[in-house]
Each structure stands twice: as structure tokens, then as C-alpha cells.
Structures
1.
Amino acid sequence: MAILRVNGEERQYDGDSSMPLLWYLRDELGLIGTKFGCGQALCGACTIHVDGTAMRGCQTTIADADGLSVTTIEGLAADGDHPLQIAWRELNVPQCGYCQSGQIMQAASLLKDTPQPTDEDIDSAMSGNICRCGTYPRIRAAIKQAAAATQGAKL
Ligand code: FES
Ligand code: FES
């Protein structure tokens, strides 16, 4: 049995705890904002937070998260009002949108650790999140806008 806190709610899972967390979140809890891309930790579409750190849900098992807090895009902020989500909307970052929840979760982890990231910090933190639509310039601009909006406050 595994016990996880998902978006603030305690969940008990009695099945095979070697199952990828992504399957559990999407198929059992219906949290479909987190996407499946490659299944091999190569694209970042499945990025979630485990105890506040960005992780790939396709390569994290339920056992890995046992006893820990898991946050998905649905739980990042009440009403979708995280500074990154606001900046994302204002700058119309998404194109098809498929990669974007993973991008935002990765960026949220970056800003939590580095509230005023340099271009190099952003490139380094975001390099594993692939966008086939090529929205990278808008992603970078939105991260900077969110950082400026919060003026280095701890997110
Ligand atoms: S689906 Fe997990 S990194 Fe691509
Ligand atoms: S917006 Fe289409 S893959 Fe990123």
C-alpha cells in the first residue's frame, strides 16, 4: 500500500506500486492535465512536482512517491493564478498546448529555487522540456515576466 498526498488530498493506493505515477494520476485520479509524451524521460510532458521538485511522472513510480506530496498542474495554484500561469496567458505562450503543463511545472520548480533566473538558468532548467511547436522564446519571456511580477518573492 502507498499513501500519497496529491494536490493536498491524501490518497491511498493498494495496487502495484511499481506503476508509473503518471498512469495513476491520469487514469485513476482523472488528472489529465499532465501529459504522456515519450514515456522515457526525454520530453518533459509529464512533469509534476514531488515534494516540490520537478520530476518526470512517466519515470517516477508510485512507490517513489510513497509518503510524499505530489502536485500536478491542477494543483499548482487555486484558480490557475500562479504567476507563471498568468504570464503564460498574457503572452499567449501555447500553440498546440500539449507540452505546456510540463513546461509550467518545470518553470515553477525553477522559480521556487531561483526566483530571479538568468537566461542560462532558464535554458539549463528547461532544456529537458521539448516543445515541437517551438514556443521556446515565449516560454522564456513568460518565465521572466513571472519572475519580474513577483520581484523575487518565494513562490
Ligand atoms: S512522457 Fe515523461 S518525459 Fe516524456
Ligand atoms: S505548444 Fe505544441 S508541443 Fe509545445
Note: Strands lie at 2-6, 9-13, 47-50, 53-56, 69-71.
2.
Amino acid sequence: MKAAAFIVSCLENERVRFAFGIPGEENLELMDSLRDSSIRFVLTRHEEAAAFILEVERRRESDQVEQLITAAHKKQNAVVGLEDTLLALQEWRVWQLVYSEGLNLRGSQCTNCEALTASDEPCPYCSHAVRAVNDLIQLAAERVFDLEGKVEQVRGPAAGRLKELGSIGAVLHF
Ligand SMILES: [Zn+2]
């Protein structure tokens, strides 16, 4: 794998969604790799423009989290908190997983049905033993991707707001 492709795959793993800059000779390979990725490249000539876009993106994330919380309180196809989110995931209802940046949760995975749970009790779905997992969010995100859903990591004030409710939530199909 070329260095540029590797860099882009690392950025994708970190769920980076935008890259800003000016294409040129010196970053041609990087631009090519970006084009084939899920990351959107935004042409910006000035740093201030990139800062402005970041600010807009922060506001969008805050709006998104507020909408998620409101919908969850009204029980309108949304949940917040780890337990409810994992339950919805198990029921194949998650359309979009939303979590705060830096969230790193331990949990368990059933050794039989692979259900993800927050506790180390036997699986609530099939009663089999569970094994501890360090990367609960990563496993949850992979499951959402399997369902062709979306995963969104929010940062800044949006992350702080979501943190009050367990740092995680989901928009549901039904
Ligand atoms: Zn199970």
C-alpha cells in the first residue's frame, strides 16, 4: 500500500469526513487516495475559510445531537444512552449511531450470538457466557455498517451535550 493510501485509510478509521487544502504537485497521490475514499475534500485557499467550515460543522453536530435528544425523549425513533442503544442495535433498528469523540467503552460480547452488552452478566438474549471487549464502540460501529447504517462521531460542544446522556445514542429505522 502506498503511503498516501495508508494515510487516508487511517483517517477513514478515525472517521474523518472532511479534508481541507489546495491540491498541487506535492500532494497528488494524497488527492488521488482521497478521491477513492469516504472523505470529502474541500478546496480552501485560506486557513480562515477552513476554520469557518469547521465552525459550521460544529454547529451542525450540535443541531444533530439536540434533535437526537429531543426525538429520544419523545420516543420518536431515537434512543440515547448505552443500554438503549445496544438494545436497538441488537434489534437491527439502528440507522445512525452517534457518539462523542474520545468515547472508549468496555463491554461484553456474547460468545454464542455475538450480542453486545454493557455488563458482564450472561447474554440477556441467549443466556450464553460473554467475553469482555475493550472496544465496544468499534464493534457497535461495525455492526451498524453491516446494516448499511451510518456512524457519526461528534466533537466539541455536541460531544459534551451527548456526554450528559451517556455519550452515545442512535437514530432508528422504526
Ligand atoms: Zn447471546
Note: The chain has a mean pLDDT of 92.
